[in-house]
């Protein structure tokens, strides 16, 4: 799980591009953004240092003197949210500044632009289990806070350009493709027709697997209709027919849910 990885982007030309590696990233929290193909990246901490008057909650962080205005800071073109930050108030404030200023947090706009800048987010789990007896806030809780603040301030809904990670179907499609590639490398002749998704979070692991299974069933039905209409069917790259979800009830979030009293 990435910490403090709220990242603003100056270039979204490779928003949904393929993975690639770059040597010696500036910090660990930028690794995934760089591997995803983003090249011009600034973190919330870097943004805070560029505009110190934006982060006013922590008295120790407030500048002793009024800094000069920054006119050399490139406009931000989008926001990438990979995981819950350590300082929620700082990240929530600066992300809102970016969205409300159309990527120019050093200036003020009379009217917030809408639609706002593109926002990409992953890791949508609301809660997760650690060593504590009660669940911990996940990135989904941080996203919920951001959505609520944006709605309260602007009267409009925060819109995501894309959502990745469980329970998004895209995540399971990617896993299916990796499994298919592994089977090919092992020389397995028989296609893999059934997948099993094992997890301890019913709100992400199981829900996402069930969504993917519905997607597979709909795709199978559509292929059958096309075959009946034309008599010909183009071969799929994958022969997966179904995905079964398996919930581990003795660990993780499922264990906590099981212990809760039923009304």
Describe this structure in words.
This protein has 263 residues and is an alpha/beta fold. It has 2 domains: 6-164, HAD superfamily/HAD-like (Rossmann fold); 169-259, no CATH class. 36% of the residues lie in helices and 13% in strands. It contains 7 helices and 9 strands. Strands 2-1-3-4-7 form a 5-stranded mixed β-sheet. A two-stranded antiparallel ribbon has the order 5-6. Strands 8-9 form a two-stranded parallel ribbon. Strand 5 (127-128) and strand 6 (136-137) form a beta hairpin. It is elongated. It starts with 5 loop residues before the first strand and ends with a helix. Belongs to the HAD-like hydrolase superfamily. One of its GO terms (biological process) is glycerophospholipid biosynthetic process. Keywords: Hydrolase, Signal.
Just give the CATH class of the largest domain: Alpha Beta
Please write the string of helix (H) and strand (E) elements.
Answer: EHEHEHEEEHEHEHEH
General shape: elongated
Oligomer: single chain
List the helices and strands and how they pair.
Elements: E1 6-9, H1 31-35, E2 41-43, H2 44-50, E3 78-81, H3 88-100, E4 119-122, E5 127-128, E6 136-137, H4 139-154, E7 162-164, H5 169-185, E8 194-199, H6 202-230, E9 242-247, H7 252-259
Parallel strand pairs: 3-4, 4-7, 8-9
Antiparallel strand pairs: 1-2, 1-3, 5-6
Helix pairs in contact: 3-4
């Amino acid at each position: 799980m990435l910490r403090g990885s709220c990242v603003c982007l100056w270039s979204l030309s490779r928003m949904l591009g393929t993975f690639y590696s770059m040597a010696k990233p500036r910090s660990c929290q930028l690794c995934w953004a760089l591997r995803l193909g983003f090249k011009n990246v600034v973190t919330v901490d870097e943004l805070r240092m560029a505009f110190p008057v934006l982060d006013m909650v922590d008295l120790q962080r407030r500048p002793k003197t009024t800094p000069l205005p920054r006119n050399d800071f490139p406009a931000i073109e989008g926001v990438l949210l990979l995981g819950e930050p350590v300082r929620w108030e700082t990240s929530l404030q600066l992300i809102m500044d970016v969205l409300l200023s159309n990527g120019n947090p050093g200036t003020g706009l009379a009217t917030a632009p809408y639609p706002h800048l593109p926002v990409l987010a992953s890791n949508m789990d609301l809660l997760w289990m650690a060593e504590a007896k009660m669940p911990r806030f996940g990135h989904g809780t941080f996203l919920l806070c951001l959505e609520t603040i944006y709605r309260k301030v602007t009267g409009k809904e925060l819109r995501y350009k894309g959502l990745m990670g469980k329970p998004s179907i895209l995540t399971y499609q990617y896993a299916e493709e990796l499994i298919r590639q592994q089977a090919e490398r092992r020389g397995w002749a028989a296609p893999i027709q059934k997948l099993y998704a094992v997890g301890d979070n019913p709100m992400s692991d199981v829900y996402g697997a069930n969504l993917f299974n519905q997607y597979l069933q709909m795709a199978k039905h559509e292929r059958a209709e096309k075959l009946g209409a034309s008599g010909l069917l183009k071969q799929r790259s994958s022969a997966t027919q179904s995905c079964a979800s398996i919930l581990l009830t003795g660990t993780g979030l499922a264990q906590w849910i099981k212990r809760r009293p039923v009304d």
